[in-house]
Automatic annotation (TrEMBL):
Residues 17-175 form the Band domain. Belongs to the band 7/mec-2 family. This is Paraslipin. Its main location: membrane. It is found in: Membrane. It is a single-pass membrane protein. It comes from the Bacteria. It holds the Pfam family Band_7_C.
């Protein structure tokens, strides 16, 4: 019974060594007597017991490797700490087993060195604004170097870019100054727009006032012209009526009488308003005549008085 049990266990052990089931997500590297034999794909396989063995097992799914933070110097001599993620996949199980001792560690170290080299080509501002191009450059360089390792680097993503505390403090001051500058520019633009609007308003007001003055003068000129036209028509009608009246008997006498009345009225008005006596030549002669008559009258009166005294 004991021997039967030993034989049964030995048969089970032989069958265990004879059969191999490779899971769907893996590939197995088989060595025969310490030498590479083949790479088994997922499925059921037979092995030679005690001769073949599974030397390496590789996961064929996409792997994510964390790249630890590291210190980098940018093109403008700014110290940064950068970390990221590497996405890779095993493409050749043989090369992944014999081409490199540890492809995961090698991929992480290569990502760090490549990232340090690529960041050294960019300034601080470019590292923030050109992440996509930076990721593509790192993937291209890692994939080129890792091709003999039987792996494929699918992509690289930068997680954090952290400047030093001194740089952060300087950036905060710079951002504050930039915000202050933008605020001053905004205020200046607002004042400029306000002045432009005010000047345009004043200009429009001046235009409106000038248009109003122009229209006023036009209206006054039109009114004056109409007034002159009406007065001229009235005078023309008056002159026509006067001419018509002169043709009637006694018209000349009436005209002379009217002219004399107007003459006397105007002379009286001038004498009343003027401080200096202004008398026409004919009236000056008339005034001299009356003064001479007054002297003659006084002389005659004096002679008569003297004769009367002698008679007494």
């Amino acid at each position: 019974m004991f021997m039967f049990t030993i034989i049964f266990l030995f048969i089970i052990f032989i069958l265990y060594k004879l059969m191999l089931i490779v899971p769907m997500r893996e590939v197995h590297v088989i060595e025969r007597l310490g030498k590479f034999r083949t790479v088994l794909q997922p499925g059921f396989h037979f092995l030679v017991p005690f001769v073949d063995r599974v030397a390496y097992r590789h996961d064929t799914r996409e792997e994510v490797l964390d790249v630890p933070p590291q210190s980098c110097i940018s093109k403008d001599n700014t110290q940064l700490e950068v970390d990221g993620l590497v996405y890779l996949k095993v493409m050749d199980g043989k090369l992944a087993s014999y081409g490199i001792e540890n492809y995961r560690k090698a991929a992480v170290n290569l990502a760090q060195t490549t990232m340090r080299s690529e960041i050294g080509k960019l300034t601080l501002s470019q590292t923030f604004s050109e992440r996509d191009s930076l990721n593509e450059s790192i993937v291209r360089e890692i994939d080129k170097a890792s091709d003999p390792w039987g792996i494929k680097v699918l992509r690289y993503e930068i997680k954090n870019i952290t400047p030093s505390h001194h740089v952060i403090h300087t950036l905060e001051k710079q951002m504050e100054a930039e915000r202050r500058k933008r605020a001053e520019i905004t205020l200046a633009n607002a004042e400029k727009a306000a002045m432009i609007n005010m000047s345009q308003g004043e200009r429009q007001e001046a235009i409106n006032l000038s248009e109003g003055q122009k229209q006023k003068r036009i209206n006054e000129a039109i009114g004056t012209g109409q007034e002159i036209s009406i007065i001229a028509n009235a005078k023309a009608e008056g002159m026509a009526m006067i001419c018509k009246a002169l043709t009637v008997n006694g018209g000349n006498d009436a005209m002379n009488m009217l002219l004399k009345e107007q003459f006397i009225g105007q002379v009286g008005k001038i004498l009343a308003e003027s401080e200096v006596s202004v008398v026409p030549a004919e009236m000056a002669k008339l005034e001299g005549f009356f003064e001479g008559m007054e002297q003659v009258t006084h002389a005659v009166s004096g002679a008569q008085s003297t004769n009367a005294k002698g008679v007494r």
